């Protein structure tokens, strides 16, 4: 089973991914976690380009770099792991490109959707947890850290990202919106319930 976590910067998705990782381990499931951009040697090199504040990267070049990192991750890690029966937990995947590059950078949701299919060879998550927080809260959390190139974009960019995630939610039945403005355990109990139902129904 392939599960992705999505959301605005600072939404807490990495914490929730970690909790799910530990939970699945406690059930003796085979599980791995990956992150985007990155997750492979090639991908981590691409990540350092993408997040570098000193580089001025053209929007289309930016999209293609994210997609290149994803293509490598799918072939090198995700496909083989799924084949061996692992749960794969991804910290961001294709929907990030749709929301950030397709929506917020105005490259077009359909265009990115099409290119995602090419990059992933049509491998997509079974479930996507979108940890939803307001732009206000995202900005508040981001202000406390040393921001990377994308995190420096600011309010109107994040508003467009969130709006695009909401558009995705309307069209995809496996896209689950989780209210991320609660305490960590309350959020995780929603995620756990969904996963338990999946495990039981198998
Ligand atoms: P990430 O490392 O997940 O940052 P954080 O842990 O702070 O959420 O992602 C880095 C940045 O890259 C983040 O601002 C979102 C952005 N991003 C895109 O714009 N497009 C993409 O396809 C992906 C995967 C990430």
Would you kindly provide a written description of the structure presented here, covering whatever features stand out?
With 202 residues, the chain is of the alpha/beta class. The protein has one domain (2-201): P-loop containing nucleotide triphosphate hydrolases (Rossmann fold), CATH 3.40.50.300. Helix content is 57%, strand content 13%. Strands 2-3-1-4-5 form a five-stranded parallel sheet, with helices on both faces. 37% of the residues are buried. The protein binds thymidine-5'-diphosphate. Residues 9, 14, 36-37, 66, 91-92, 96-97, 100-101, 150-151 line the site of thymidine-5'-diphosphate.
Present the secondary structure layout.
Layout: E1 2-6, H1 13-26, E2 31-35, H2 41-51, H3 59-83, E3 87-91, H4 94-104, H5 109-120, E4 127-132, H6 135-142, H7 155-171, E5 175-179, H8 184-200
Parallel strand pairs: 1-3, 1-4, 2-3, 4-5
Helix pairs in contact: 1-8, 2-3, 3-5, 4-5, 4-7, 6-7
Bound molecules: thymidine-5'-diphosphate.
The site of thymidine-5'-diphosphate has 13 residues, from helix 4.
């Amino acid at each position: 089973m392939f599960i992705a976590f999505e959301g605005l910067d600072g939404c807490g998705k990495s914490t929730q991914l970690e909790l799910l990782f530990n939970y699945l381990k406690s059930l003796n499931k085979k599980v791995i976690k990956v992150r985007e951009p990155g997750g492979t040697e090639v991908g981590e090199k691409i990540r350092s380009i993408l997040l570098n504040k000193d580089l001025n990267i053209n929007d289309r070049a930016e999209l293609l770099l994210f997609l290149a990192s994803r293509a490598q991750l799918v072939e090198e890690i995700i496909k083989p792991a799924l084949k061996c029966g692992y749960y794969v937990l991804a910290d961001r995947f294709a929907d990030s490109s749709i929301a950030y590059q397709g929506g917020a950078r105005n490259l077009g949701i359909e265009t990115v959707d099409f290119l995602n299919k090419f990059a992933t060879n049509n491998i997509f998550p079974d479930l996507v947890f979108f940890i939803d927080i307001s732009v206000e809260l995202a900005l508040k959390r981001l202000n406390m850290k040393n921001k990377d190139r994308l995190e420096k974009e600011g309010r109107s960019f994040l508003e467009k990202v969130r709006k695009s995630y909401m558009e995705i939610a309307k069209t995809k039945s496996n896209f689950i919106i989780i209210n991320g403005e609660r305490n960590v355990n309350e959020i995780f109990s929603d995620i756990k319930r969904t996963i338990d139902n999946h495990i039981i129904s198998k």
